[in-house]
Amino acid sequence: MSWGAARVQSLASTMNEPSKDESSPRKLIIAIDGPAGAGKSTIASRLALKLGYVNLESGAMYRALALKAIERDASFDDEGALVKLAENLHIHLEPTIGGNRTLLDGRDISSRIRERDVSEAASRVSVHPKVREWMVAQQREMGAGGGVVMEGRDIGTQVFPHADLKIFLDADPVVREQRRMAQQKIKGDVAASVAAELRERDRRDRTRAASPLMAAADAVVINSTALSEDDVLAQVERLVSEKLSHR
Ligand code: DC
Do 52 and 96 touch, CB atoms closer than 8 A? Predict the structure, then answer.
């Protein structure tokens, strides 16, 4: 399977072959954006599973580039060098139950890219407009056929401004930090420094000049602070049903 110039592959390419049955509806493009810890990944992956869609975590692509930069000792501030690295990346996103398995040059980097140094680096490499341009082009190609739930920071604003459904999932910062701590099963001093890093990445994502994290004007904003995962999923599923019934 080849994407030609695009070196990012995903199962979306094989799952979303044009339907031979003319009566079957085109599958939706669903964008889920929001800050870290708001519950995007879980909701996107559960929703995709229910709909039989592909879940694509765009953050994993920035993380893969960040890892490559760490390994090549490239500066996170050197936009030109980062773009060159990006152009030679072979990332493969493989949707699995509970998230994407990420392969870089055939190597499984799924756990490695969740580590703190990569999280920090991903937030720094993603500020560069030319890096984002490259990422956005790949992401558009991956999702163009529909039948995708793509999550990130700029999916509804930049990648798919005409997505069928845009969700902006937010939550109180303290609650987001607590969720992240629970997820990573960390406490005490480590938890405090991880929380501080999360806050800093959040600030960087929201204030960068290129495609800062923000809700698209036509996104449905869901605040998950006081909601369970099941409640959020139910709300999103209702929105999907409405979209499908109006087609
Ligand atoms: O969603 P995540 O935490 O895995 O994302 C890692 C970093 O990549 C995060 O700091 C923001 C950035 N990112 C982005 O700028 N745009 C996206 N569409 C997805 C992630």
Answer: no
